[in-house]
From TrEMBL:
It comes from Nocardioides gansuensis. InterPro entries: Proteasome_assmbl_chaperone_2, PSMG2_sf, Rv2714-like. The lineage of its organism: Bacteria, Bacillati, Actinomycetota, Actinomycetes, Propionibacteriales. It comes from the Bacteria. Keywords: Ligase. This is Carboxylate--amine ligase. GO terms for molecular function: ligase activity. Pfam families: PAC2.
Length: 284
């Protein structure tokens, strides 16, 4: 059971969760939580007991010094934080976790019980995977939702993936089993630049959250970081003809298989986000 520190009643809270590990290519999904923790000034209220779920020889504790110079050990765990974004009329529960090494069903049950205690009304899980996609094009994001109205409103490109899954897939399935409304977004990270970070993929996931929450999220330096990341990969390709040829083949495949109407919808959604963000800046 997860114990909370000084939590008042929350307003229609939505859960946004991401987990390090297999589900988090280039740290793109956990990067979203890190960004939201910062821009929404989130406060950690509790953590899962790691003893039951982590192999400490795989996820080792870290020793360091605290603000008073005392030596402390930080154990690998999954933490819950809360935020009250000024852009929203509801509170947010953020879960920044590490994929557990064992007892996945119990792990999900404890986290969801904690979310239920906090009054969560919707769970959003984030993931990122490596894929054959060019870095020069918008990062593809697929999604699934438990509620048909969410699928229709968000115009989700439903995932057709079949195969091994990680804790994000298990957590999303646990929501379905408990009839908790849930949405899951997955960003496709170019596999030839798999090393973290990938701000372009993080930015793509944030865009989907903006659509879901119907608000503008402060992006800070992420847009410029994304452009710098893309320029860096361009330079890498320029120095290696094999990579450059491969990227061109991915571009041709992407450009010939993507439906024009799908591209038009994506452009329209991005323009709507831009207008909302601009209006928000003007009002501020």
């Amino acid at each position: 059971m997860i114990e909370f520190d000084d939590v008042q009643d929350l307003v229609s809270p939505v859960v946004i969760a991401a987990f390090e590990g297999w589900n988090d290519a280039a740290d793109a999904a956990s990067g979203v939580i890190d960004h939201l923790m910062d821009v929404w000034d989130a406060r950690v209220i509790g953590a899962i007991d790691p003893e039951e779920f982590y192999d400490f020889q795989v996820n080792r504790p870290v020793v360091g010094s605290d603000a008073h110079g005392h030596r402390r050990i930080t154990w690998p765990t999954s933490r819950l934080a809360i935020a009250s974004p000024p852009e929203l009329d509801r509170d947010v529960i953020l879960i920044r976790g590490i994929e557990p090494n064992m007892r996945w069903r119990q792990f999900c049950a404890e986290l969801l019980a904690a979310c239920d205690d906090l009054g969560a009304e919707l769970v959003v899980t984030l993931g990122a995977l490596l894929a054959d996609t060019p870095h020069t094009r918008p990062i593809p994001v697929t999604g699934t939702a438990s509620e048909p109205d969410l699928v229709d409103r968000l115009k989700l490109e439903q995932s057709t993936y079949e195969g091994p899954t990680g804790i994000v897939g298990v957590f999303h399935d646990a929501c379905l089993q408990l009839d908790i409304p849930s949405v899951s977004y997955w960003a496709a990270v170019p596999h030839y630049v798999a090393q973290p970070p990938c701000p372009k993929a993080t930015l793509a996931l944030l865009g989907q959250l903006e659509d879901l929450l119907e608000c503008s999220i402060p992006l800070g330096e992420l847009p410029e970081d994304s452009r710098a990341w893309e320029r860096g990969v361009d330079e890498l390709a320029e120095d290696d003809e094999d990579i450059a040829a491969y990227v061109r083949s991915l571009e041709e495949t992407r450009d010939t298989t993507e439906l024009p109407e799908a591209s038009g919808e994506a452009i329209a959604r991005e323009f709507e986000r831009f207008l909302k963000r601009t209006r928000g800046d003007d009002e501020a």
